[in-house]
């Protein structure tokens, strides 16, 4: 697992250097985008991949905590993740209003990724004994951070792209989101499987029960019905395996917003455009008449 994460970070570092002949759907046409702008655009794309990863990281694995550790039903676990959904809205509003008022995004990204780094790390503190107040409050921090970043990354990205390339840039932005979502499930899923396999061997005495949490079956077994189908002490052992494995899932998650936070410190503050100079839109009738005359 460490080698996988290390290779991923190494690839991101290598990708930071500007390409001499960029090929893309990103609007980075060869010879038209200066190297510094390529770096600016590349950093924001990598930051957005990370945000997209973390959204799925939390939304796919926080319900696992509620169902397999807190023993909530699927319906109740959906209600229990509402704080992280609802609080992202005011976070996005704060980021959007601040960006519109000051026209500066770098500080907003630093604050947002700081909240995300601290927030996903704090989720590792959740346990079987966590109270309602604890799991509600621990969802607030990453939610505010995600809201602030999501609402301000696209304007910052578009500031480094020419207006004629805006459509291609937004299409690329959508692709990057989908790409990040995939890794937001794959990476924590791999972490969960690795550690559940390890902890099941250490904790669970029944070999038949242990097999349900090994060989990649941990995610499928993370339901209340599965856990409650066993009597004590096996039930407590299963809960312990999921609790410890999910702690590792959220601790590993710290690395990604921390990387994005580092990138945000070296962002270039590109001035946001206040007027549009584009060929799109309706042609003015008076101008057309005067041109014909």
From TrEMBL:
It comes from the Eukaryota. The keyword Membrane applies. Gene3D superfamilies: MFS general substrate transporter like domains (1.20.1250.20). One of its GO terms (cellular component) is plasma membrane. It is a multi-pass membrane protein. Keywords: Glycoprotein, Membrane, Transmembrane, Transmembrane helix, Transport. It is found in: Membrane. The keyword DNA repair does not apply. It holds the Pfam family MFS_1. One of its GO terms (molecular function) is transmembrane transporter activity. The chain crosses the membrane at residues 48-66, 78-100, 107-126, 249-266. InterPro entries: MFS, MFS_trans_sf. This is Major facilitator superfamily (MFS) profile domain-containing protein. It comes from Stachybotrys elegans.
């Amino acid at each position: 697992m460490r080698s996988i994460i290390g290779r991923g970070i190494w690839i991101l570092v290598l990708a930071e250097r500007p390409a001499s002949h960029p090929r893309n759907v990103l609007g980075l046409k060869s010879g038209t985008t200066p190297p510094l702008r390529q770096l600016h655009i590349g950093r924001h794309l990598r930051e957005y991949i990370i945000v997209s990863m973390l959204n799925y990281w939390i939304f796919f694995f926080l319900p696992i905590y509620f169902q397999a550790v807190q023993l909530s039903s699927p319906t109740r676990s959906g209600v229990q993740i509402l704080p992280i959904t609802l609080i992202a809205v005011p976070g996005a509003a704060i980021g959007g209003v601040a960006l519109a008022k000051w026209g500066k995004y770098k500080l907003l990204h630093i604050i947002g990724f700081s909240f995300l780094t601290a927030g996903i790390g704090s989720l590792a503190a959740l346990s079987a004994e966590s109270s309602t107040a604890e799991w509600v409050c621990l969802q607030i921090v990453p939610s505010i951070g995600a809201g602030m970043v999501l609402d301000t990354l696209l304007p910052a990205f578009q500031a480094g792209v020419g207006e004629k390339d805006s459509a291609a840039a937004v299409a690329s932005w959508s692709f990057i989101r989908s790409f990040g979502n995939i890794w937001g499930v794959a990476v924590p899923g791999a972490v969960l499987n690795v550690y559940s396999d390890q902890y099941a061997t250490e904790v669970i005495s029944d070999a038949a029960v242990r097999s349900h949490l090994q060989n990649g079956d941990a995610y499928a077994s993370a339901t209340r019905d599965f856990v409650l189908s066993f009597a004590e002490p096996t039930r407590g052992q299963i809960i312990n395996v999921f609790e410890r494995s999910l702690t590792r899932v959220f601790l590993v998650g710290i690395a990604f917003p921390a990387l994005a936070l580092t990138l945000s410190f070296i962002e270039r503050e590109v001035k946001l455009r206040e007027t549009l100079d584009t060929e799109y839109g309706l042609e003015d009738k008076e101008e057309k008449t005067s041109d014909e005359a």
